[in-house]
Structure formats: structure tokens, C-alpha cells
Amino acid sequence: MTVESGRRERKKAATRQKIADTALRLFMERGYDAVGIRDVAAEADVAVTTLFSHFASKEALVFEQDTDFEQRLTQAVTGRAPHEPLLPPLRREIHALVRHCTADGNAPVWQMVVGSPALREYEESMRLRHAETLATAMAADPHLARTTTACRTIARFVIDAYALAREAPDPQAAVDEIFEMIEAAWRVTSP
Predict the structure, then answer these.
(1) pTM for the complete prediction?
(2) DSSP string across the chain
(3) Is the pLDDT of residue 22 over 90?
(4) pLDDT of amino acid 111
């Protein structure tokens, strides 16, 4: 049973990755607006219903690591030892995301996102969702002892840090600069 379950999960993950890779390749070759869901499904050799079982929308195909990033942020909060500081693991996750987003091969993807109103809107809604998920994890941690408003504010700062940093001339230095400000704000919220 476990072997079959493991095989099924690997197969689902491989199909998801194939769809995402195919979509990104088509978007980069033809332009985001010129490619439809049916085009992606046909090229990936899957049914449209299969594509939608893995991705909720066309925009989600571009941000295929969205769920993984959201889970990693939550884990940075919930996976800490009870009295371990909150911000260092969050800073590490934002550094990792910025490294991913600013890697040489990803520059054309971000140019595509910036050039598409639908993708910019999707990214903004994704960031808001990530911030709410992060704020909920922070507020649920009894060792942090902050108000819901403080948690929501700091979570928004953390999530927006990567968008600001990826546009900076030195993205990694920008993350550190932004986190100095976030740490100061976090200290101010201390009970």
C-alpha cells in the first residue's frame, strides 16, 4: 500500500512538473497572452481537466512553486524551537526566494510577469494570501505574544521584502537592509 501510494504521488508530481515546464516554455516562446490552457494541455499531452486538477488557473502555471513557498514560510514560524527568535528563519526563506527569483534563468520570467496585468494581479493576490497565512502562524504561536495587528503588519513586511529586494541592484543586500527595518518594527511590537 505504501509503495503504491508513493508511486502515485511521484507520478502526480511528475505530471504537475511536466505541465508547469511545458506552460513556461510555451509562454516564453509565444508570449503569455498568446498561449491558452488548451495549448498547454495539448503540448503536455494531458487533458484540460488534468491540468486544472494541478493548477487552478492559467496564472498559477507561472507561479508553480507558490504552495511550496507558502509552506516554507509557515514552517519557518512553526518549526522553530519555543524560544528561538522569529525573524532569522524568515530572513533565510526570503533570501532563498530572492536567490531563486533573481537567478539568471528567471529574469525573462519576471519580465513576463511585469509585462502582464493578469500576472501582476495574480502575484499581488498571492502575496496577500502568503501574508495572511504567515500572520496566522505567527499569531497562533504563544511564544511570540504579539497582537494580531502586529503579526499581520510584520507578515506583510516580510512578504513584500522579496518583491522590493528582487528589484534592487544588489538583491541580497536589500534583503538584509529590509530585515533590519523589520526587526526594528518587531521590537517595537514587543509587549
Answers:
(1) 0.85
(2) -HHHHHHHHHHHHHHHHHHHHHHHHHHHHH-GGG--HHHHHHHHT--HHHHHHH-SSHHHHHTTTHHHHHHHHHHHHHTS-TTS-SHHHHHHHHHHHHHHHHSGGGHHHHHHHHH-HHHHHHHHHHHHHHHHHHHHHHHH-TTT---HHHHHHHHHHHHHHHHHHHTSSSHHHHHHHHHHHHHHHHHHT--
(3) yes
(4) 86
Give the Cα separation of 168 and 163 in Å (integer): 9
Share of the chain above pLDDT 90, in %: 71
Per-residue confidence (pLDDT) for residue 3, from 0 to 100: 64
> Amino acid letter at 32?
Y
Identify the residue whose cell numbers are 497562533: 140
Q: List the one residue out of 94, 116, 117, 110 whose CA is nearest residue 165.
A: 94
